[in-house]
Predict the structure.
Amino acid sequence: MSTSSNPLRDPQDRRLPRIAGPSGLVIFGVTGDLSRKKLMPAVYDLANRGLLPPGFSLVGFARRDWEDEDFAQVVHDAVKEHARTPFREEVWQQLAEGFRFVPGEFDDDNSFEALRATIDELDKARGTGGNFAFYLSVPPKFFPKVVQQLKKHGLSQGQGDSWRRAVIEKPFGHDLASAQELNRVVHEVFEPVDVFRIDHYLGKETVQNILALRFANTMFEPIWNRSYVDHVQITMAEDIGIGGRAGYYDGIGAARDVIQNHLLQLLALTAMEEPGSFHPKALVTEKLKVLSAVELPEDLGRYTVRGQYAHAWQGGEEVLGYLEEEGIDPKSKTDTYAAIKLTINNRRWAGVPFYLRTGKRLGRRVTEIAVVFKRAPYLPFESGATEELGQNALVIRVQPDEGITVRFGSKVPGTSMEVRDVTMDFAYGESFTESSPEAYERLLLDVLLGDANLFPRHQEVELSWMILDPIEEHWEKHGRPAQYPAGTWGPVEADEMLARDGRSWRRP
Amino acid sequence: MKIDLTNTTSSKINAGLIEARRAIGTPAVGMVLTLVIVTDEGNAYDALKAAGDASREHPSRTLVVIKRPGRTPRDRAKSRLDAEVRVGSDAGTGETVLLRLHGELANHAEAVVLPLLLPDAPVVVWWPEEAPEKPAEDPLGKLAQRRITDAASAEDPVGALGVRAGSYSPGDTDLAWTRITPWRSMLAAALDQRHSAISAAEVEGEPYNPSTELLGMWLADRLKVPVARKVSDGPGLTAVRLDTADGAISLDRADGALAELAMPGQPDRHVALKRRETAELIAEELRRLDPDEIYKSAVQFGVERLKFDRSQEDSATRPLPDEDEQKAAAPAKKSAATAKKAAGSAAGKSK
């Protein structure tokens, strides 16, 4: 198995891509949205790029009365509609031979026996070598059942040196206690190193580029500290409402849904120290270090804000307020907007606030990290010349329109000395491929390769809950979410929160 | 947007580029490299189309150098530079300049190209056909970090490989090599799995297909086993076979699209292995601009050290193999061991 003994491989031969070894993927909840819109297309795109092993097999497990052919048809439609790369008959043929469908319920022993028989059959017919990843694309309440069934039917351990891995999606619990319970349940069956938690943000090129930007260049790291950075704003805004997810969303809210995982991961990557290497262990050590140095503001009432979107006109259409949405309790206290201030207690960041915000039905869909720098300590210009000059900023645009913007002052052409903000842009789509791989492609491939670098480990998940839990507890006891008109950038309380510090939110 | 400049100079072209970009409202673009295509009027269209498609992955300034030295002495005496500047939707995602070099100027292309290179960005020269014998010493090739040739477009494709090997200089690469990346990657993946020692190999493809020879040389170079070259009707490369004690590992592609991978003790499986368009090849070439040591080692292995199976082939097109190899060609088995030793020791020396 080891590549060093393969005479056809050479570290110098960088044209050869990393191809996963013989393996297959089993998806539970294969009829779901995520599976059709993201996973199936990602599998096809990987095959199209030649990154899947010959014989790769995809097994669907769901409560449907389907034959393999029906399943293949569903995948076919999903791929046609959502795949990133063009449809090619020969790639499809290669893949389609490995499609299997196992109908059944999670508490039905027969279905899991059937799954085991399918896996054994694939090992013989397709040479998958007993290596399978189980993707749990099901609500978390089913996790215990599914993993227990896998264990009971001998599916969770591979024979010999073959592997079995579990892939789980957020939410990883709804507070520290439930997260620990979930980890316990999963780790009872799968070794911690064999559990892959998907945070699809970490699969995005721009997020991986944060590390390249910081640690491959010389010009950013020297100013990446409290001497030069005034504050950092991390924003993830959605323009959509909760849609049909009322059942899931109510009681969870924006902070648990987004801040706990995505935003704290972005914070960790932005603020962490340089890892000794890009080995998963070294990386996770640094992330844990910075997450455990995060401190909450003393006065949670003043430095955290939550809101709910209210009935309004948004971008040309009239939309309902959160409390009017179908299936939502009109008295619900669930936050659809959350903004918090954090500080990091270490030498690099002491005194530099990190403002995190997320929300639904905001101005537009955008995720970005803005590092805002201090003003120049002295300006040798006439007063008035720099009136329009703001603070320098470096903005990492995570999505959409991935790239980096640098904002700095420049002289306005003319006879008088007048300095005004200008921006310098780097757009991914401009300098590199128009279609960089989807996050799920990268993450699925990494699961098959067993590369855990882009997956949050359970310690990180637990640390993030430790940061968020006190805030949620405070909210539980005090007040109600503020209302903000749908399509705006959140409640006025959030603006006031920054104004107290003499700062203001960037309009992303 | 398109600007035609007749009887012009490089600095006027530069001014034209800036003007064109201003006119479409994007004064700056993140172009990552300059691609110089050296071609003639007949091939310019196809080459430019491929470069345009590749520019979607690598936004670049594409300079198409079309040499028109002229047929009559009178034409040759008059030199003139005509240019066509294309920016925006007419030029993929970067900008394109077609340069027509008339008369004596055709011999001084580098003087026209040098002022038009993007500052600081890497330069790639691509000769879709009629590559110079020593690309690195060509005046245009000297400007470039990466020089792309295509042995398949040569009059004697297999002979061209020998020329490439002789004149190799870091940064050289050939599309015949690019074409076999999917094959190499699939074979490497096959050998990632457990298998017994490989004793011999065979590559099969249509005649005049230098990729087949290159793949054979790469296998011989890496595996240190004798490699035979068989001729088939194509299209392109059709099969690779690696002999092991347990049976053959083989990759067969009869139709140019879907291949079948067979390994001892494992079920046969289909793998997609489509012949790729030129645009995809160029895009792959532009992905890495550092010297390709593996290509060097493979191309310099020497075509003459492959064993040619002459059974289906017009004997005039191939050099005569050594005498003992000729005898070995049919029964093959026994002499494989001796040939292996020879290949092994020779490969050892060349390192």
Notes: Chain A has a mean pLDDT of 89. The first helix of chain A runs from residue 33 to 48.
